[in-house]
Amino acid sequence: MNVWLWVGQIVLAVSFLGGGLVKLVLPLDKLRGGMPWVDDMPRTAVQGIGAVEILGGAGVILPWATDIAPVLTPIAAVGLALVMVGGFATHLRRHEYARSLSNVFLFVIAVLVAAGRF
Asked: Are 80 and 111 in contact (CB under 8 A)?
């Protein structure tokens, strides 16, 4: 089971570190193609989401890997699950049903990692 939890943690880390970095550094014009929801939010909100995703992506790996405050890993996974709830709600509000599938997928992984690491 430990291997599967690590796989889940790595999937979450790669997804959220990459997505968060993109949201944090790219201008809104560049994000609109793949993330049309950015039109509904100010730049600072998009950057804030990106920063939270980066922290969560690091949080699901580093504490457990370094054995420094490992309780932070499942807490980070819960936080990422909550981010996915917000993303899912945003996509549903915008009638972007196909885009919400990735939110569900990452939500399930985050919940499984949180449950397994608590």
From this structure: no
